[in-house]
Amino acid sequence: MQNFIFDCKTRLIFGKGTEKTVGENMKRLGNKVLFHHYGEGYIKECGLYDVIMDSLKEAGLEVIELTGVKPNPEVGLVRKGVEICKKEGIDCILAVGGGSVMDSAKAIGLGALYDGDVWDFFEHKTPITQMLPLGVISTIPATGSEASDTSVMTNDDGQIKRHIADIILRPSFAILNPELTYTLPPYQTAVGGVDIFSHVVERYFTQEPDVDYTDRLCEATMKTVIENLPKVMENGKNYAARAEIMLAAPWAQNGLLGTGRIEDWGSHMMGHEISGIYNTAHGATLSIIIPQWMTYVYKENVDRFAQYAVRVWDADPALEKEELALYGIEKTKEFFRSVHVPVTLKEAGIDGSRLEEMAEKCCKNGPVGGFKQLYKEDVLAIYRACLE
Ligand code: NZQ
Ligand code: ZN
């Protein structure tokens, strides 16, 4: 096990009705709030918007809104948010929505305290040193951005999607009410669940020995998603199952499961290139990539894949290691299929015309992945295997 520091500053406020406490929680962060959300749609229809506004006003906070966030958020709206923050003297941000809203809010919080262009952070041209305090209400259990140190942003200029990570990016608090996810359409629920599962996969598959404690936490988290995702797909108002998924999201991505080990992240990097060009939902890029990535790399550590099959998929430990490894990969793919997400590029409506370009961009800064380092040729081979 490697040395590590784990510091998750985000306070999780979990359960029914907790969104009503947003005013008092924001009051601890500042006085003038940028309220960032998708805009029209479910936030207004389900009454959440009014609850939030009432709570913020009751706490005596001044509120300015910024709406219009789209999935795979684009840096243009972030720039607009930065301008508003500077002009209006905003001193804290509230993000209400999923990863796209929360990640945009993180970037706005960085840009508001920086003199240059906010995209500089995503080009790693400037270090991350400060961000406006951020509170979030998560409405999709998926990315784990509600407690993560990460922001992922798309720049339409070049069709690139890049991520940054630093402890400074963690929100101060995250309000998680599973009831707020009842309105999620089945597809959004499914790709969210796949994303949670993938965050664990990216950490579980390591070459680091002697990480049994975190292996067990990873396995518990994967099993929780496997058991509960089909239940919420069947009945979107199953509170118990929604709650399990909502709790799994931040714990899969707040860094705990990766402590003491080298993580992978190659699949995410390959997925970002797909979203950057085709605007595919993030979780859907992972349901396509993960099984093919597994098939490509399992021989690097068959024992680990065999352990995955036995402990996560209840395979018979008496089987040959290789057979177990392949069984675990097949079960993963079956699971994704069972929740109706694409497992090939073709199913996502993507042809093979830009694979070379995607592989090139993916490895622009060198090989990706920690379990097995993947060079452009490897990435291209995986993309090709994903075609159909
Ligand atoms: O626009 P509307 O119609 O309002 O629909 C929204 C949104 O467009 C809808 N939605 C959200 N909550 C809802 C709801 N619909 C009904 N009921 C609700 N309760 O969902 C649509 C998708 O939202 P989005 O925020 O894009 O989804 P997600 O949370 O999956 O975020 C994806 C983004 O996060 C990044 C991804 O790459 C992608 O850009 N990630 C962020 C990470 C992080 N910060 O740690 C890590 C992840 O690996 C990921 O890369
Ligand atoms: Zn993800």
Structural write-up:
By secondary structure, the chain is an alpha/beta fold. Helix content is 48%, strand content 11%. It contains 15 helices and 8 strands. The strands form 2 sheets. Strands 1-8-5-4-2-3 form a 6-stranded parallel beta sheet, sandwiched between helices. Strands 6-7 form a two-stranded antiparallel sheet. β6 and β7 form a beta hairpin. α7 packs parallel to α9. It is globular, with a radius of gyration of 20 Å. The structure holds 5,6-dihydroxy-NADP and zinc ion.
Summarize the structure.
The protein is 48% helix and 11% strand. The protein is an alpha/beta fold.
Shape: globular
User: How do the strands of the widest beta sheet line up side by side?
Assistant: 1-8-5-4-2-3
SS strand fraction: 5-15%
| SS field, number of helical segments | 15
Let me know the average pLDDT. Answer: 97
CA-atom Rg in angstroms: 20 Å
Write the layout of secondary structure elements.
Layout: E1 11-14, H1 22-27, E2 32-37, H2 42-45, H3 48-58, E3 62-66, H4 75-88, E4 92-97, H5 99-111, H6 119-122, E5 134-138, E6 150-155, E7 160-165, E8 173-176, H7 186-204, H8 212-234, H9 239-253, H10 266-278, H11 282-297, H12 302-313, H13 321-338, H14 355-362, H15 376-386
Parallel strand pairs: 1-8, 2-3, 2-4, 4-5, 5-8
Antiparallel strand pairs: 6-7
Helix pairs in contact: 4-5, 7-8, 7-9, 7-11, 8-9, 8-12, 10-11, 10-14, 11-13, 11-15, 12-13, 14-15
The structure holds 5,6-dihydroxy-NADP and zinc ion.
